[in-house]
Amino acid sequence: MSNNNLKFVIQVNDINSFILNPNKIIGYFGENTFAILQEYVLDNLHSLDGGPSISNLEIIKFKYNSDLDNGSLRLKFQINKRYCCSDTESCANDYLDFNFDLIGSRMTLEAEYFDWTLNN
Fold it and tell me: Are 49 and 61 in contact (CB under 8 A)?
């Protein structure tokens, strides 16, 4: 399991449009950012059984402080698993809480994943 933070930068046009529709931020991720996000989450899972992947991204709890040009958001997602031998599937909902800074059109987002799996 990894203990480091996830950090990436996206280019945004209009921060105010995110206030009305925070899910627009996902449209700025691109394939590379999505790949980094998925790799980070999977690296932090307790088990990779079932070939996990993430899907159904949604942003909630978006907060922006225009005086300080920073804020926070929660990125919700599903972790999907498919077990070929038993032909079963499962999914679990999870999230990352991000803090971000905005400098010009560069939004720098940072989060740390917590695996909620009980393994005792």
Answer: no
Structural domain boundaries enclosing 34:
6-111
pTM for this model (two decimals): 0.84
Contact status, residue 72 vs residue 63, Cβ threshold 8 Å: yes
CA 100/CA 81 separation, integer angstroms: 30
Distance between CA atoms of 101 and 53, rounded to whole angstroms? 28
How far apart (Å, rounded) are the C-alpha atoms in residues 48 and 42?
7
Measured between alpha carbons, how far is 40 from 2 in angstroms, rounded to an integer?
8
Q: What is the pLDDT of residues 18-75, one digit of tens each?
A: 988 999 999 988 888 999 999 999 888 877 777 888 999 999 999 999 999 999 999 9
Residue 41 domain-assigned? yes
Residue 116 inside a domain? The answer is no
Q: What integer pLDDT is reported at residue 71 of this predicted model?
A: 95
**Number of domains, the chain:** 1
**CA 101 – CA 81 distance, rounded (Å):** 33
Q: Is residue 92 part of a domain?
A: yes
Q: Residue 42 carries which side chain, given as an amino acid letter?
A: L
